[in-house]
Amino acid sequence: MSGAGFAELAAISNFSFLHGASHPQEMVETAAAFGYRAIGLADRNTLAGVVRGHAAAKQAGLRYVPGARLVTQCGFEVIAYPRSRAAYGALSQCLTQANRRGRKGECLLTIDDVLGLARHAALCWLTVPPPRLEPIFGEKLAQLAAATRHVYALLVPLYGADDKARFRDIAALADWAGASVLASFDPFYHAPERRPLQDVVACIRQHVRLDAAGYRLAGNAERHMKPVAEAQRLFADYPQALANIEKLLAACDFSLDELAYQYPEDAFDPVLTPQELLEKLAWDGAHARFPDGVPDKLDGLIRHELALIKDLNYAPYFLTVHDLVRFARSKRILCQGRGSAANSAVCYCIGITAVDPSRLDLLFERFISAERNEPPDIDVDFEHERREEIIQYIYEKYGRERAGIAATVITYRSRSAVREVAKVMGLSGDVASALLALNWGGGGKPPPREHVIEAGLDPDTPGIAATLALAGQLIGFPRHLSQHVGGFVITNERLDTLVPIGNAAMDDRTFIEWDKDDLDALGMLKIDVLALGMLSAIRRSFDLIAAHHGKVFELADVPPEDSAVYDMLCRAESIGVFQVESRAQMNMLPRLKPRDFYDLVVEVAIVRPGPIQGDMVHPYLRRRNGEEPVAFPSQELEEVLGKTLGVPLFQEQAMRIAIVAAGFTPAEADRLRRAMATFRKTGIIHEFGLRLVDGMVARGYERDFAERCFKQIEGFGEYGFPESHAASFALLVYVSAWLKHHYPAAFCAALINSQPMGFYAPAQLVAEAKRQGVIALPVCINASDAEADLENTGETIALRLGFNQISGLLKADAEALVAARHQGGAFDSVADCAARAAIGVATLERLARADAFAALGLTRRQALWAVRALAPESKAPALPLFDGQGVSPAVAEDEHAALPALPPGMEVLEDYAALRLSLKNHPMAFLRDRLAAQHVQPLASLQNAPNGKRITIAGLVICRQRPGSAKGVVFLTLEDETGTGNIVVWPDRFERYRRITIGARLMRIEGRVQRSGIVVHVVAERLHDISSSLLQLTAQHGMDSTAHLPKVLRPKRQTGRKTPREMAWRGE
Amino acid sequence: MSAPLPPKPQEPLLTGRRIIALWFPHWAAETSRADYDVAEPFALIDMHKNAQRLVALNGAAGKAGLYPAMTLPDARALLPDVQTAMADPQDAAARLQKCAYWLQRYTPWIGEDTPLETSDGLTDYGLLLDISGCAHLFGGERALLEDMAARLATYRDGRSITLRAAIAGSIGAAWGLARFAPSDLTIVPEGQDAEAVLPLPPAALRLSPPHIDLCQRLGLDTVAELARFPRADLTRRFGPTPVLRLEQALGQAGESLNPYLPPPQFQAHKNLPQGVTQIEALAVLIGELCAALAAQLQQAGQGAQRLDLALTRSDNAVMALSLPLAHPSADAAHMLRLFEERLTRLSGGLDAGFGIEQLRLAAARTAEIVTPQEHISLSGRLRKAAPMAALGGLYDRLVSRLGANVVVRPVPHASYIPERAVRFASVLEAQQSGDDVSSIIDPATRPLFMLCAPEPIEVIAEIPEGAPYRFRWRRVLHEVTAAYGPERIAPEWWDGLVGDRQSASIGHNRRTRDYYRVEDTQGHRFWLYRDGLYEREKGQPRWFMHGVFP
């Protein structure tokens, strides 16, 4: 084959982590631009990049040969290309075995593995000669050539001291070993400009600075792809090496398209086919949900969907999900489906979701379409604490051979890229941290010059400019593979013949090398088994209600459309309620005024980057409040936007607009959505943006509307929120709001016991419950349970805080306490408690700090004094504490020691320290007199303050946010004993009061009231840090007087009363 | 710093033990080698649990609201332009040790401060001095303390050292008062330790953070409140150490001073009743010291790696001379020769004032001398010192004459650029072979003789990357009969970009080189290169001669 062409068969991409310096797409596109006949992309000991290469090659119209570069422990490098589906499976299994031997990210491959694979599977082999030819390489080459046919040695022009001699030697060696030679550039990057980046990643890999790397780097920039003519010139003396490329291409005609995916076909039913079974389950479910007859609309939906499922043969998929849900139900684990197919009538009937599809109006085809032959997508949320049981069930049912977790490709983000590059460039910690603090634009664009100058750096310093440029290139590079949170792949055949499986960091966890996009591209089934804290909280609420109120509920039993619940939400009393408890949502609730379920769907979806960036929120609210007529941009869009008053709010609507109004094909719209979701494709997005806007303008839409639609699609990029997800979440919003309204004590206890979750700490949750009239009882050694519980006081059912509220208390100790109490009755002294519950002194100290011995008539300090008498530090004669003989009188005597009483203010601070909340009072209450003298108003007075009034307020800072979308505005939430208040700090005020805004725990703010409806803000004009006034509550001295305060109360700057030692620290 | 001392009509008689506790709240920052503006906030930082945090501040930083253990981002949020430098705890400790030496002017008994465990690993810098019987030499305790404070204020050129100090009858009381007494300088009259200590917070008792915390929790705000409990009750709750500390502070339990540093193992000194001013006389005395030191070293099988000579003048000024040695040596003559070299060079500068009164020579760093097996010769005579030791001696003399940074030797350096493949290291640096070169660069591909600067040549060669056909070098035309290459060597693009000291000038206009080994008709072999790649790099490529093969 002379002059016929060239193909690169030894390329690596950046999926050879920290070896390759170009994306698979870049390698493929360059190969296509040079007019190569094909490209073989083989990354080091992995198949992680092949799907991307495959997809890119398909788009570029280039032939793609998938394979892997096997690098053994002893340093032998050989590229393997499967010649058949079976050989591909064997390669994948071989990598799996090697992965499973090592820790996460390691692949311990031996030469015997390679030889074994060569003997038993039909692959082509390209050996990579080491930089200096050694006899051992020849031996291994000979071994390989003896094991199989199709063995080649690569001829690579390295531009070393004597390439000619090297070629001659390799050719002779190959000849001797019974192999042939093959021409390649063995490229690590697609173009010579990437050499600096390749040097940088090599340094990152080897943990050296660039100037110390020496011979660990390549001496020149020749490891890139070169034009065909250049190949012909360089290999002119070895025509056989070029001809062998053609031979190899002829031998390896395996394509990833052959990985036809099979749904698991387990015998769901001995008699019925999967489709028949699904139909039976669907109709049974429909009749169970509607005993009086299935409504016509639903009946029609079910028939329609079942027919479509039958057409596409998706019944096994639905049955697989149904099986998981059924298992969860049998274990009483709450779960709910969401995702594109979840809100279908069939899913409702077979119990995957509790959202009645007839209350929505979702088109099934939008999620499962015959034209895009793409698997349906159902995510299922489970109680977060019990998801593991579901995962174990999957492994048990399908075995590890057939089920695996998908990977997540962890890529370099601006921070990690800058950090690593700065290290390699030898920048000092100061400069590096200043660079880290910079705000990067999208797509790896370096931050603007002004920002660099603002950070105190000179953007023209060559080292800084180079660092920023290199970090920009590194952003988006895959860094390592990690386990996806819950994406499961289940196959019909062995999974490891499809894709290699590797060990995860967690013991006994494995994951496959492909991520969700890869699976999507190959059309493989995946189920997301996700964890959701709110489901745990709802389950706990149901359990508490059943135990103390005697009423049994499930998700589907909660009475729908309770107007009292909507009233509560309209008042923005949503602390603790799923999804709508954030500050932004609490602002939106009174403006949107949700009155029915669909309003909640809108509420969930509207406070999202998409609608906000697309500037769709205000038009929607105006139309909803009747301030603006509902109009549609066109007749054709009325159908798409009818439900949302002509304003696109959901991801599906944006996609439909692209199809209906801009003339995209559904497949193009889908590619647009994907382009948004994948990071770093700014070029493509831009191109789509032009097409979308121009397309819409050409069809008579206003350019402004078109641009807003595109901005919205951009906003959906990473935080897409389709209507179907919103609907599933809206149900949980409703259920949690219903629980909060009707059973506030149970709901509060359930939330506390499900921590950490949600936006608010137990202090705020308990305060909210108290506002709702719940009686909250303190942690008590003789009354509390391990967790927060309900307690019948005779008059009411009160909330009793549990031992889990005490920071650092072990669950086992709490349980031992409760068990000892159940066995032998209430404790009568600290020593009694220590002896019977057999818990350690550290635990008793925690109980004392939490004031849990108050029921025994002991103050905190007395309890601590008594506990410390049991301390192991004690060198006094052994006390008969744990031998069951009772307590020595000396100890019992000690228990009411004469210790100074704790001032009430300190009691509260101690409560916060031990319990993160106080039932006694709010710390601010103790400062109220002093504050009142400074004309500080309680936060509750904001409710009635007129718009524009100047006001002075003060409170603990419980929340500080500086959202990226808010252009430097800082939002603060203050809390005092009367309630909370929302503060807005505009950028000019922020700059002026930077320290205070960032540092103060306790603030006094002078500002102006701004009210819209019942939403009240204070726009800060002056801020004062009054953190030090908390110290006055302590009335103690010593350097660490605030050190034991809870973080939320501890002033960041230690001011206020100082000891000389502190003053000296400050040089006063 | 300069707070007036309480008026004291008369000094008590010096009967009991008297301890000074010194506390340097800003030691690490104030003595840091970093170059910073003392009037502006400055902090030393380290890495703690993967985060940069402040470990030491100067006064200005403290006033600005920074505090130790604060994370650097927090500090920057408060004070965007705070100056920082990396902390070097070993250096700070060494400087404290130096200060302890210096303080020997007041008393020979300098005590190590009890190392305190702190929860976040921050170091507290303090010293203890036993001045029993010394104070009268300085005009009383107050005068001594004020003298010390005044000298420390100018201890380090231009930067003052913040000092708090207390004199009391026990280590415990002095320690607590230095840190917690109301004034910077406190003197407790003899026998009144307990009264002085009782109002202090319990932290003044050198308690560990958990114990301080426990006191606070129990509401025991002062030493007095703690002291009110029976000792047995306290021991049961706090363990024995805090109770011991309490008793020590109250003067009820004894405590000995740990000498700050053991004196160097090998030293010799001479006191002279009459000051010596002449260098020649000094040289004789130094020779005697060298002999004495060498004898000590030989006995222990050690050799000195650094010699410290301290000359104390009659007016108490100390002149110090420090000599590094290339090889451990216990050879008195060699040592003396080195000092002589130095002294001659100092001749103009040595100011003996009214005479040198004391000479002290110490081997500050030593290492075992490995004596090689000596050759036994039939004639019964032993051969003299091994050649390496002799070379070491030469190095020492050269270094002492010329300076340590001037006497260097070449070592291999890992760089593809031929003229950079060597670097120069001080002969005093531990013997090292440099980077391993042979595994990557085949020595046969490099010429034995390389030109200092590549010389431009005229070449006829195939474009773009063919080997030369003929070339003219130093006016002689050479016909090429054989050529190997090109070996392509790209410039080190990071040159001038790495590290904090960057220069824009280097590295930028460098180009890729294609090296060829060629042979001419005469059989001479040359190493020449084309500078620059056609099309890929700017400008026309040029050719250079870089070396010749023998």
Structure explained in plain terms:
The complex is a heterodimer of chains A (1068) and B (550). With 1068 residues, chain A is an alpha/beta fold. Chain A is built from 45 helices and 22 strands. In chain A, strands 1-2-3-4-5-6-7 form a 7-stranded mixed sheet, with helices on both faces. A 7-stranded mixed sheet of chain A has the order 8-9-14-11-10-13-12. In chain A, helix 22 (563-570) packs across helix 32 and helix 33 (744-753) packs antiparallel against helix 34 (762-771). The longest helix of chain A is centred in the last third of the chain and has 20 residues, at 723-742. Mean pLDDT of chain A is 83; it is low at 873-893 and 1035-1068. Chain B is an alpha+beta fold and 550 residues long. Chain B has 4 domains: 10-28 and 88-263, Reverse transcriptase/Diguanylate cyclase domain (Alpha-Beta Plaits), CATH 3.30.70; 34-87, 3-Layer(aba) Sandwich (MutS, DNA mismatch repair protein, domain I); 267-368, DNA polymerase, Y-family, little finger domain (Dna Ligase, domain 1), CATH 3.30.1490.100; 447-549, no CATH class. In chain B, 26% of the residues lie in helices and 28% in strands. Chain B has helices at residues 27-30, 59-63, 72-78, 89-102, 141-153, 171-180, 193-197, 209-218, 223-227, 231-238, 240-249, 279-300, 332-346, 387-402, and strands at residues 19-23, 42-48, 51-57, 83-86, 110-112, 126-130, 164-168, 185-187, 267-276, 302-313, 318-329, 356-368, 408-412, 422-426, 449-461, 468-473, 476-489, 513-520, 525-531, 542-549. In chain B, the strands form 5 sheets. In chain B, strands 15-16-17-18-19-20 form a 6-stranded antiparallel beta barrel. In chain B, helix 10 (231-238) packs across helix 11, helix 12 (279-300) runs antiparallel to helix 13 (332-346) and helix 13 packs parallel to helix 14. The radius of gyration of chain B is 33 Å and the shape is elongated. The N and C termini of chain B lie far apart (74 Å). At the A-B interface, helix 7, helix 8, helix 17, helix 19 and helix 38 of A face helix 2, helix 3, helix 8, helix 10 and strand 17 of B.
